[in-house]
Design goal:
With 230 residues, this protein is α/β, with parallel strands linked by helices. It is built from 6 helices and 10 strands. The strands form 2 sheets. The protein has a 6-stranded mixed β-sheet, sandwiched between helices. A 4-stranded antiparallel β-sheet has the order 2-1-4-5, covered by helices on one side. The radius of gyration is 17 Å and the shape is globular. Bound molecules: adenosine-5'-diphosphate and magnesium ion.
């Protein structure tokens, strides 16, 4: 059992976060008033149907986008009112992203793909150590085309965690993988959460995976409709 989240430090605080997209005459309310507290070290799974606003919420938490209205803080940073420069800095210093498609550079080895990020970070893990954390010590010099989908995703996770982010945001990291491989990838994220203390939010379509998390959030039609501790 992990320690009670209530005993941990508040990292994200969202109040009545809304996001409206307008394209032409069409107005889409992607988020309709999200209230959410996230504590340091939590491992949260975010479930919900396609179009329910999961990616929008994750992108806003990660400083890839800003709310249309509402309050959003990361510790003492006001993410709702940050400009592009502040958001870029927030992402660079604090956030690791993992997406469904791995976005590895095909002409670079696993080690070199991770080193691209660690070369720019202040106090990074060694690429070899980051790859060891995801179980790929024996694949350091493989190119992406020589790796399975699950292995490529684990390289992408090593790349995201090598700069020691405070928070790891994963948008359907298992979306292109079969169930056993997806579960293995989730176990890697769980291990990073436990061993490095990285706060993790993971979007998945697979409700069975929810059992691995400390906490499960459910979104429906832009609203948070369930928030359960495991
Ligand atoms: P999910 O990740 O749960 O599938 P999204 O957050 O991607 O949902 O999308 C929520 C809603 O917002 C959807 O109706 C989607 O079409 C819309 N949406 C998302 N991003 C944009 C955008 N950049 N421009 C316009 N509409 C968008
Ligand atoms: Mg999405």
């Amino acid at each position: 059992m992990s320690p009670s989240a209530a005993a941990r430090e508040l990292v994200f605080r969202a109040r009545d976060v809304r996001k409206v997209y307008t394209s032409g005459a069409v107005r889409i309310e992607a988020l309709k008033g999200i209230d959410l507290d996230v504590h340091s070290g939590e491992f949260i799974v975010l479930l919900g149907a396609s179009g329910s606003g999961k990616s929008t919420l994750l992108n806003i938490l990660g400083g890839l986008d800003i709310p249309s209205s509402g309050e959003l803080r990361w510790r003492d940073h006001d993410l709702a009112r940050a400009d592009e420069r502040e958001l870029t800095r927030f992402r660079r210093e604090h956030v690791g992203f993992v997406f469904q498609f791995y976005n590895l550079i095909g002409s670079l080895t696993a080690r070199e793909n991770v080193a691209l990020v660690t070369d720019l970070a202040d106090d990074p893990l060694r690429p070899e150590d980051a790859l060891a954390m995801v179980g790929l010590s024996d694949r350091l010099d493989h190119f992406p085309a020589q790796l399975s989908g699950g292995e490529q995703q684990r390289v992408a996770i090593a790349r995201a965690v090598a700069k020691r982010p405070d928070v790891l945001l994963c948008d359907e990291p298992t979306g292109a993988l079969d169930y056993p491989t997806g579960k293995l990838v989730l176990e890697v994220i769980q291990k990073i959460n436990q061993e490095l203390g990285t706060t993790a939010l993971v979007i998945t379509h697979n409700a069975a995976i929810g059992g691995m998390a400390d906490r499960v959030l459910r979104l429906a039609d832009g609203r948070l409709v369930a928030d359960e501790q495991n």
